[in-house]
Amino acid sequence: MHPSIPQAGALAGCRIIDLSRVLGGPYCTQVLADHGADVLKIEPPSGDETRGWGPPFAQGVGGDTAAYFVGVNRNKQGLTLDLSQEAGRTFLRGLLAEADVLVENFKPGTMEKWGLGYDTLKDDFPRLIHCRVSGFGADGPLGGLPGYDACAQAMCGLMSVNGDAEGEPTRVGLPVVDMVTGLNATVAILLALNERVRSGLGQFLDITLYDCAVSLLHPHAPNYFYGGKVPGRSGNAHPNIAPYETFATAQGTLFLAVGNQRQFATLCATLGAPALAEDERYASNAARLAHRAALHEALTALLADKEAAGFAEVLLARGVPAAAVQDVAEVLAHPHTRHRGMVIEHGDYLGIGSPIKLSRTPATLRRLPPALGEDNAAHDAPSS
């Protein structure tokens, strides 16, 4: 750590060299940067490829780059280095001498080819924490192969349990594997920083999309382990709980997530049908699962004259988990989203706020996403 840096966040004084591109690594380093870490984002001369993943483009932010890039690269300094050249590698080693953490997501073997693998770096920088985000890791049957979010969703079972029962396997509508991999990398870095306080040593963090995708298979994996049945797709319905799915209303779609008998009885009473909770077909969660179709039909009839958003608030106030299905524009404009600081506005910049709320050292916006090579001159980086 670097105690000379003002304590502006929980990670103030922690210097991170970020060689990662696209999403998993940059998402990780933005989480750390939001909480005070000094992150140097180092891109190849051509830039992080997501700078061009538009439209839309965020004019006036990050050098008029794609909104995709802007979404995960705030609070970072921006440098360019050509690591295929000796001058670039030498300059990087100089940065690592003052760094706490290195984050990279090159294909396994690339850093080693450049003489920058962990086994080499740990001798020169024993306190350095080296976090590699990759598709499959360096060894094993799939070791060294490139990894992509959608492919991980397909091969690790996520698509097989997502979508309508009679439909085709469906990708989750956001890059969930990349983002969870970024979060796991964040957790790993914080664990290693904490352990280094005791040992004084860094270590290698091996975080893969494959592992992180497999880790998301709850409750489907335990259901398979102990039930022996291969899980399938059930649309919006939960495999273990009923009623736990969407229902049409007169205005909007309502999601009910009823997890116990008290909640079910309250739901029925609020709908003016308390006898439904006494029906033997619905007297327990197991019974409701066995009669899910009939229950869905009965609840749909009772909800036919309701307005999803208003009725969801009534149910929540009575302890019944419920929510109207909102689109992205609706949730970003919701008063509670603003109240929680989950939308950041600064000049031309708009971004999602940090969900990690610390009372004394909150996340802050200190720098907008950098233009390509914006801080080269400040760091005397070699031209590339």
Question: Could you list some keywords that capture this structure?
Answer:
single chain, 384 residues, alpha/beta, formyl-coa transferase, domain 3, 16 helices, disordered N terminus
Describe what is shown at a glance.
The protein is of the alpha/beta class.
Layout of SSEs?
Blueprint: E1 15-18, H1 24-34, E2 38-43, H2 67-70, E3 76-80, H3 86-96, E4 101-104, H4 110-113, H5 118-124, E5 129-134, H6 149-155, H7 176-199, E6 204-208, H8 209-215, H9 220-227, E7 244-248, E8 253-257, H10 261-270, H11 285-290, H12 292-303, H13 308-317, E9 322-324, H14 328-333, H15 335-339, E10 343-346, E11 349-352, H16 376-379
Parallel strand pairs: 1-2, 1-4, 2-3, 4-5, 5-6
Antiparallel strand pairs: 7-8, 8-9, 10-11
Helix pairs in contact: 1-7, 7-8
Q: What is the number of beta strands? A: 11
Count of helical regions: 16
The sequence of SSEs as H and E is: EHEHEHEHHEHHEHHEEHHHHEHHEEH
Unreliable segments of 5+ consecutive residues? 1-6
The name of the CATH architecture of the largest domain is 3-Layer(aba) Sandwich
Largest sheet: 6 strands, parallel
Structural category is alpha/beta
Name the assembly state: single chain
Strand order of the largest sheet: 3-2-1-4-5-6
Superfamily (CATH H level) name of the largest domain: Crotonobetainyl-coa:carnitine coa-transferase, domain 1
Shape: elongated
- Residues in β-strands, percent: 5-15%
How many domain regions? 2
Mean pLDDT, rounded to whole units? 95
* Helical residues, percent: 25-40%
C-alpha termini separation: 30 Å
CATH topology of the largest domain: Rossmann fold
Output the radius of gyration. Answer: 25 Å
**What would CATH call the class of the largest domain?**
Alpha Beta
